[in-house]
Amino acid sequence: MMKFFTAANTTSVARALMVFPIVYLLNAWDGKLVNFPIWAAFWISMAIFSDYLDGWFARSYHEVSRLGKFLDPVADKIVIFGVLFFAKPVSQAIPNWFVAFIILRELFIFGLGYLVSKDSKREMQANRTGKWSIFLTSITFILMIFKLNPWADYLLYITVAVGSVSFLLYMKYYYHLYQVDVKRN
């Protein structure tokens, strides 16, 4: 029987739940840099760090599992989309075209990954550039809500570039899985 309550899986679930204090604290913020809630900074930092930590737990304790490879990206999406759609300082600061880019990228990666992996012997898993894309997206949100221009704009375009490269690498991997595992069956 597969173990659900591993350190890695628990960390992923905890990250998904961090969306609640982050959104609450950001919505309670008055928008002035000097009044930024320190607890919001704490929870944002914990969410970013936990994305690294769950993978480290899985590898270190030999707990890499199909469930964990599913939970990790789902937790990422819950935090990113939860903050993007429900935290007013973020939703008001992020350009609509970037929101559309994030949504379309994630839908394609997750949707195509699911379709290919369900008929494959292998499972979906995050790639390194995908992890960088999530990290840069988080930092971009922070710079945008603080209106730290031009750095926020520079990072926004770097995030799009890394997200695009990540998207292409996922598509290449899914195409390979389709050719090797799905089409041959």
Give a short account of the largest sheet: none
Uncertain segments are: none
The proportion of residues in beta strands is under 5%
Number of domains: 2
Shape: globular
Helix count?
Answer: 8
Q: What's the helical proportion of residues?
A: over 70%
Structure summary:
The chain has 185 residues and is mainly alpha-helical. The protein is built from eight helices and no strands. The radius of gyration is 17 Å and the shape is globular.
Draw up the topology in text:
Layout: H1 7-17, H2 19-28, H3 38-60, H4 66-86, H5 88-93, H6 96-118, H7 128-145, H8 151-182
Characterize the structure shown.
With 185 residues, this protein is an all-alpha fold. The protein has two domains: 1-93; 95-185, no CATH class. It is built from eight helices and no strands. α2 runs parallel beside α4 (66-86) and α7 packs antiparallel against α8 (151-182). It is globular and about 60 Å long. 30% of the residues are buried. The model has no long low-confidence stretch (mean pLDDT 89).
